[in-house]
Inverse folding.
């Protein structure tokens, strides 16, 4: 199988997106925007900066940027500074992403060696103080939703590769961890990003996202301790019991 060519474009510049953000602010709506390369994420951050300068505290739009395959070094700490939510797809942090190509060969050839060593820098963004969340919009019926599986997302978020222990989507494999090594997340960060941080992103953290008196009793019971489970093979974990609003539903 030959590797695909890739080219992208952004539909808005920062000024145009700032106008959209002002309209959203008037209507009380939030923005969830999908970005892949450096420029698209940069445009969103610039747009938020422009509107924040103009409106100050009157700017209430919750802005979430998702995916962010590659980011400019100078943009990594702007999520925290500007209050923009960084929503990554950790299932992709092995670099394969269903391309059918070995990432350590594919990415340097496509985007150059230097940029290929800077993909998916979620740990740096987390450590800068930004709200980081995890999700996946990679819907694949033939893979039996494997690319949506949060336990697969947690494993790859922690290991950045598909090992022979990984319950991987069909045909996806990688030879080793994707660079840079310092971007591996820990289990606490993976759990927080899938639970309370996600609830904050969606504006439902008063009811969901953590186990507290007064919140909906949505929770899972596992027969092993997620905090000490081996990272390789974490994708095979399944909850033993599922509770929704206090009622067992499995
Ligand atoms: Zn998307």
């Amino acid at each position: 199988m030959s590797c695909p060519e890739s080219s992208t474009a952004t539909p808005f510049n920062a000024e145009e997106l700032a106008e959209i953000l002002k309209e959203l602010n008037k209507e009380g709506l939030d923005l969830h925007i999908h970005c892949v390369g450096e420029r698209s994420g940069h445009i969103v951050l610039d747009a938020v900066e422009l509107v924040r300068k103009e409106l100050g505290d009157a700017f209430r739009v919750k802005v979430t940027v998702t995916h962010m395959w590659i980011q400019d070094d100078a943009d990594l700490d702007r999520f925290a500074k500007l209050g923009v939510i960084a929503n990554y797809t950790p299932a992709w942090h092995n670099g394969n992403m269903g391309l059918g190509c070995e990432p350590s060969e594919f990415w340097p050839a496509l985007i150059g060696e230097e940029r290929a060593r800077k993909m998916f820098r979620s740990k740096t963004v987390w450590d800068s103080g930004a709200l980081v969340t995890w999700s996946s919009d990679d819907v694949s019926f033939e893979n039996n939703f494997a690319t949506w599986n949060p336990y697969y997302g947690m494993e790859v978020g922690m290991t950045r590769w598909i090992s022979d222990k990984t319950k991987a989507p069909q045909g996806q494999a990688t030879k080793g961890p994707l660079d840079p090594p310092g971007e591996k997340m820990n289990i606490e960060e993976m759990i927080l990003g899938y639970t309370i941080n996600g609830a904050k992103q969606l504006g439902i953290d008063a009811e969901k996202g953590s186990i507290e008196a007064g919140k909906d009793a949505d929770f899972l019971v596992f027969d092993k301790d997620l905090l000490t489970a081996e990272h390789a093979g974490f994708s095979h974990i399944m909850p033993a019991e599922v509770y929704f609003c206090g009622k067992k539903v499995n």
